[in-house]
Each structure stands twice: as C-alpha cells, then as structure tokens.
Specification:
The structure is a homodimer of 202-residue chains. Chain A is α/β, with parallel strands linked by helices and 202 residues long. Chain A is built from ten helices and six strands. In chain A, helix 3 runs parallel beside helix 4 and helix 8 packs across helix 9. At the A-B interface, helix 1, helix 5 and helix 10 of A face helix 1, helix 5 and helix 10 of B. Chain B binds a DNA duplex (30 and 30 nucleotides) through helix 7 and helix 9.
Chain lengths: 202, 202
DNA sequence: CAGCGTTGCTGACATTTGTCATGGGGAGGA
DNA sequence: TCCTCCCCATGACAAATGTCAGCAACGCTG
C-alpha cells in the first residue's frame, strides 16, 4: 500500500516537477495537486491523502494557515511544510500549527522522499540548522499592533497613509514604529521591515 | 538522438524535481545539474548540452549573466531562462544576453518540455503576457548612478551610509535618490526601491 | 564647436521621520 | 485590589529625508 500525497505549491512548474519526482518512488503516489492554500482542505477531503506537502508562500491562505485548517478538519493527515525560505518564525509557526515536518527547498532531492516517509511514520522532520536558528531568534518581540503597523509600512507607505489605513493617529503610528525599530535593533523603518521579514515575524 | 539538457537552479529540491520531470520525456535527457551561475560554463563545456535551463535567481553569477557567458563561450548551446519572477526587465535583459526562451515557473509543467523542444528547434519561446508587460514597462529610465544608489538603498541604509559605500557626498546621494524617486513616480525611497525591483531595474 | 545629458558638488529649505515624556483606558495576573 | 503591559493619543524636539537652484566637469553627438 503506497503513501498517498497531496501537493500544494503556487508555482505550477514546481508542483508538477515535485509530483514527477515523488511519483518515481514506488511507495509514493501523488493523489492531488493544488495551487492555493484555500483549496487544500477541500482536495484533502476528496482524495484522503496520508501526507500533505504544503508550500508556505501561496496566494490566498498561506501554507501555515492551510496546515492549521487541515489539522482541524482532517487530523489524520500529516503535514510536511516545504518552503523556499528558512525563516525561523516560519518553522515555529508551522510546528504550532501542527506540522510534522519542515523542509527547505535547498535540501537535496533525494532527501524529500525520505522526509515524506518519516513524516508518514509519525516522526518529526526538521532541518537541524534551522531549528537552532529558530531557538536563537526566539518568538517575535513585537506586539500585535506593532506587527500591523510594520506590515503596513512594508510597501514604503508614509506615516499618514499607514495611519489612515489602520484608523490610527499619526502620532500613534510613529510610536509603534519607533517601538518596532527599537525591538528589532534597526536604525529606521526600512531596516526594521527587513529584519522582521527575515525572521518571519510579519 | 535525444536532446541533452543542462539544469541550473540554486534550490536543490527544485533542480532535482525538474530533472525528474524532464527525464520522463523520452526525447529529453538531463546531462548536467549545477547550483550556481558560475558553474554553468564549466559544466556545459564538459557535458556538451543542446539546451541550458537557467534560473535567474542564483548565488554568484545570476542566470542572465550566465546566459551571456554561455553564449560567448559555447554559442551552440541554446538558453532557456526559467524563473520565479516575471519581471519585465528580466525578459529584456535575458533576450539581450542571447537567451532563446523565457518561462516563468507559473506555467504548467506539461508546457516545459514543449518549450525545451521549441528552443532546441531554434524557435523563440516567450510568455506573451510577459512580453506585453515588457513593452509597456520599457527600458529602465534610471541612469547608471541612480541605479547604483537605489540598489545601495535597498537594505534600508541611511544617506550617510550609502555615501560612504559609494564614495559620494551626501548631497549627491540625495540628488540621485530624488531623481530616482521622481522617475519611478514613487513618493519616497522605499517605494522607489519596490517599483524598480518589480520592474527588474535593479 | 555647440548643445545635451550625466555625474558630482554645495547650500538652503520644507517636510517627514524617529524619539521622548506624558496621560488615560482596558485586560490580565499577583 | 494593585501592578503591569498593551493600546491610543498628544505635543515637542532633533535628525533624516526630499526638493530645488546653481555651478563645474566630462563625453557624446549633430
């Protein structure tokens, strides 16, 4: 009896290629492919996979949210997150969302099938380097509001724009930004956005 | 006689998966895989591929520079650029570097083999939507120096830092930035960086 | 050669940004 | 209940940023 797989990645080419790669293994079988996070649960319900491989970066619902939704709806399906970016915060949030494994796309292709088998067997699969980074980086030091404001500043918007968008006074926005800059150890807004993004805090 | 392929992508998993996908086609054969732009020419010399599939985002030499180097060294090898980001500027620069095709990773997996065959047959393969975007966006309006300064501003550095890094006076940096902001239609530095990046001007 | 655009610099100016002190209100823990 | 933390706000201040005008040098082109 082969392991049934669900594949979710927004890039069709990568999705198809991963499917080809995994189908080469005699004990693995890709039974569903989707290109958006909000299609995951529906497809899983229909095809009853054993393991779901989810990319983090996806339109609509991201892979971590999809993992949480999947665990809530179909707890029998194990989740393996496969992502381009090894952001510490991603790993943390993925595990909190109930993922059993976390693999970055830098890992050799041969290791993926093994990771799938381990996850299916009930083991955890986590990149050790990334796990260490995640411990060092720790949880996000930003409060909910600071995160909101910083996220709104991502596209280079001015304070006035952010204030309008979040229905805050300009002074409050500046205070939140100042706090975020301080906590991230940045010298200004742009750098704070970079640091927070790198750590997966946004 | 099958078509010999060289694969260059920095993400090992994607590289391996694409290899698996293409090797499924009876008339295609992956003869080399590399993970960095500066390994492309050497590998091509050794394995004599017919077509090289190059990712744009790679450490060391990027895919477009690798394409140019490859065309200069081994003009018989046709180049197909495969990239995540459909930035208008990338397409333009890829074609100028001598690439025969340009495919974004959003395209369905089934289309990739076809693209390879077309490129091998001497045809051009270009995403029509992207081609249109490229025409609309046009060439970069930024001068060489403005591009330098904007690139240096990408990581959120202050004017003083940029000035030091480029051996310019602070006033000059501010002038270049102001010009770049004006030309991109942005309201500030951060937005200008975003717009320029989106268009592939950096 | 004259004109043009790019580069580099200066100085001046208005605006924006970042910081700090201060205060009120609410939620949650000791 | 008191204390702490977060949220929201205000006002004031210093620093950074963006804009503008003007000047000089260089290389390219008609």
């Amino acid at each position: 009896m082969s392991i049934r797989l669900l594949l979710a990645d927004d890039q069709a080419l990568v999705r198809g290629a991963l499917s080809a790669l995994l189908n080469l293994e005699p004990d693995l079988e890709v039974v569903a492919e989707v290109g958006a996070g909000d299609e995951v649960v529906e497809a899983a319900r229909r095809t009853q996979p054993d393991v779901a491989l989810l990319d983090v970066e996806m339109p609509g619902m991201d892979g971590i949210a999809a993992a949480a939704a999947l665990r809530a709806e179909l707890p029998g399906v194990r989740v393996l997150i496969v992502t381009t970016f090894g952001r510490p915060g991603f790993l943390r949030r993925a595990l909190q969302a109930g993922a059993s494994g976390f693999v970055v796309k830098d890992t050799p292709a041969a290791a993926l099938a093994d990771a799938v088998r381990r996850v299916h067997a009930g083991l955890r699969v986590v990149d050790p380097v990334l796990a260490a980074d995640s411990l060092v980086a720790g949880e996000s030091p930003l409060t909910a509001r600071e995160t909101d404001v910083l996220r709104a500043a991502k596209d280079g918007a001015a304070v006035a724009t952010i204030a309008q968008r979040l229905f805050l006074s300009e002074g409050t926005v500046r205070n939140h930004l100042s706090a975020a800059i301080g906590k991230t150890g940045a010298a200004n807004r742009a750098e704070a956005v970079l640091i927070a993004t790198d750590n997966g805090w946004l």
